[in-house]
Amino acid sequence: MFADSAKVFIKSGKGGDGHVSFRRELYIANGGPDGGDGGRGGDVIFQVDKGKNTLVDFRHIRKYAAKDGEPGGKRRCHGADAQDLIVKVPEGTVIKDFESGKVIADMSKDNQREVILKGGRGGLGNMHFATSTMQVPKYAQPGQPGQELWVQLELKVIADVGLVGFPNVGKSTLLSIVSNAKPEIANYHFTTLNPHLGVVDLSDGEGFVMADIPGLIEGASEGIGLGHTFLKHIERTRVLVHVVDGASVEGRDPLEDIRIINRELEAYNPQLLTRPQVIAANKMDAVYDHRASDSIVTMLRKEFEPQGIKVFPISAVTRQGVKELLFHVNELLKTADNGPLIFEKEFEIQYQGDRSLPYAVERAQDGAFVVEGPRIEKMLGYTNLDSEKGFDFFQKFLKSTGILDDLEKAGIEEGDTVRMYGLEFDYYK
């Protein structure tokens, strides 16, 4: 089975929490804080696997989650970093944010490995928070959370030359005789349901990669049939070869076929029409009336050669005219843009800028609930509680950071006293 798109869920690992502990050794009555730091959470890394040519594996496994970092331990022990999760994809895979459709990464050319989601950083142990005024900090920093995202994977083949045309015009046969590709060939519509790539070797070590793009139909740019699935594979090609039935074996009009396909290309992506084009009038061996064959080729040349598009009458079966076609395509490649289209990054993963600062809630001997820690000090440093807006912010801060939940877990009741450094107030819901 060939699969060229998949929707998958990815998640990086959470950083391990910092540890709260104090030295407890013989002859040392009141040892200082020695809680260690948490380990880093695992990254989610996408990596090109040259042996893959399909996204079919992602049809069966749709969730990829990296491991969490280990928490810190006593005696300044650092928690172990989690192992990164490596997701292998075929070359040419474009990774997009599923919700917005924006490009996160294009796994092509030089970009063979990329970190898509970074793991959370480990939290600091309480040994980092000892100060002259707080020598026994009973809090540590929690690990940074991991990131999660639904992504769309799209495989866009990487080829120098794309063969385009309606079904059953001989694209697969042409590819099979000029390259090492072995596509399925039969005399019925939509034989080819997935792109085939082949290497065309010319004299003096020259050559190029050619792709048989599955047959297009009118309305493909609107998604009719397998339109979008087929059209996206053309985006990376540098030269387009229109293969038409020069013998009109099935009664098709070669001129109209080319016009229709160019309209579909323009509707899907106008940039596609800026690529050099060539016309291969195939099946000339099936023409018994040479005047008719001359007439078809003449009409094609009259219509398209003024636009700079050369016409080659060929037969993929007898190889008539094929050599001349290939050498012309090779010359076009020398003047075309060097290298396949690479899709630029459009989407940035948003990470937390600062590590979340810790705090602690505990009960004092007089029954008051004491809340302390760097997060509280920082908030009180920039909040004016005498103003209405400042006090409103203070209340929202207590709720959004989970401090109120922690106070309730500690058993606080209405009317109980809460202390935060120099601030003291009674608790009411």
Automatic annotation (TrEMBL):
<keyword id="KW-0963">Cytoplasm</keyword>
<feature type="domain" description="OCT">
    <location>
        <begin position="351"/>
        <end position="429"/>
    </location>
</feature>
<dbReference type="InterPro" id="IPR036726">
    <property type="entry name" value="GTP1_OBG_dom_sf"/>
</dbReference>
<dbReference type="InterPro" id="IPR014100">
    <property type="entry name" value="GTP-bd_Obg/CgtA"/>
</dbReference>
<feature type="binding site">
    <location>
        <begin position="282"/>
        <end position="285"/>
    </location>
    <ligand>
        <name>GTP</name>
    </ligand>
</feature>
<dbReference type="Pfam" id="PF09269">
    <property type="entry name" value="DUF1967"/>
</dbReference>
<dbReference type="InterPro" id="IPR006073">
    <property type="entry name" value="GTP-bd"/>
</dbReference>
<keyword id="KW-0460">Magnesium</keyword>
<feature type="domain" description="OBG-type G">
    <location>
        <begin position="159"/>
        <end position="334"/>
    </location>
</feature>
<keyword id="KW-0342">GTP-binding</keyword>
<dbReference type="GO" id="GO:0042254">
    <property type="term" value="P:ribosome biogenesis"/>
</dbReference>
<dbReference type="InterPro" id="IPR015349">
    <property type="entry name" value="OCT_dom"/>
</dbReference>
<dbReference type="InterPro" id="IPR031167">
    <property type="entry name" value="G_OBG"/>
</dbReference>
<dbReference type="InterPro" id="IPR006169">
    <property type="entry name" value="GTP1_OBG_dom"/>
</dbReference>
<dbReference type="Pfam" id="PF01018">
    <property type="entry name" value="GTP1_OBG"/>
</dbReference>
<dbReference type="GO" id="GO:0000287">
    <property type="term" value="F:magnesium ion binding"/>
</dbReference>
<dbReference type="InterPro" id="IPR006074">
    <property type="entry name" value="GTP1-OBG_CS"/>
</dbReference>
<feature type="binding site">
    <location>
        <begin position="315"/>
        <end position="317"/>
    </location>
    <ligand>
        <name>GTP</name>
    </ligand>
</feature>
<protein>
    <recommendedName>
        <fullName>GTPase Obg</fullName>
        <ecNumber>3.6.5.-</ecNumber>
    </recommendedName>
</protein>
<dbReference type="InterPro" id="IPR045086">
    <property type="entry name" value="OBG_GTPase"/>
</dbReference>
<dbReference type="InterPro" id="IPR036346">
    <property type="entry name" value="GTP-bd_prot_GTP1/OBG_C_sf"/>
</dbReference>
<keyword id="KW-0547">Nucleotide-binding</keyword>
<feature type="binding site">
    <location>
        <position position="172"/>
    </location>
    <ligand>
        <name>Mg(2+)</name>
    </ligand>
</feature>
<feature type="binding site">
    <location>
        <begin position="190"/>
        <end position="194"/>
    </location>
    <ligand>
        <name>GTP</name>
    </ligand>
</feature>
<feature type="binding site">
    <location>
        <position position="192"/>
    </location>
    <ligand>
        <name>Mg(2+)</name>
    </ligand>
</feature>
<comment type="function">
    <text>An essential GTPase which binds GTP, GDP and possibly (p)ppGpp with moderate affinity, with high nucleotide exchange rates and a fairly low GTP hydrolysis rate. Plays a role in control of the cell cycle, stress response, ribosome biogenesis and in those bacteria that undergo differentiation, in morphogenesis control.</text>
</comment>
<dbReference type="Pfam" id="PF01926">
    <property type="entry name" value="MMR_HSR1"/>
</dbReference>
<keyword id="KW-0378">Hydrolase</keyword>
<dbReference type="InterPro" id="IPR027417">
    <property type="entry name" value="P-loop_NTPase"/>
</dbReference>
<comment type="subunit">
    <text>Monomer.</text>
</comment>
<comment type="similarity">
    <text>Belongs to the TRAFAC class OBG-HflX-like GTPase superfamily. OBG GTPase family.</text>
</comment>
<feature type="binding site">
    <location>
        <begin position="165"/>
        <end position="172"/>
    </location>
    <ligand>
        <name>GTP</name>
    </ligand>
</feature>
<dbReference type="GO" id="GO:0005525">
    <property type="term" value="F:GTP binding"/>
</dbReference>
<feature type="binding site">
    <location>
        <begin position="212"/>
        <end position="215"/>
    </location>
    <ligand>
        <name>GTP</name>
    </ligand>
</feature>
<dbReference type="GO" id="GO:0005737">
    <property type="term" value="C:cytoplasm"/>
</dbReference>
<feature type="domain" description="Obg">
    <location>
        <begin position="1"/>
        <end position="158"/>
    </location>
</feature>
<dbReference type="GO" id="GO:0003924">
    <property type="term" value="F:GTPase activity"/>
</dbReference>
<keyword id="KW-0479">Metal-binding</keyword>
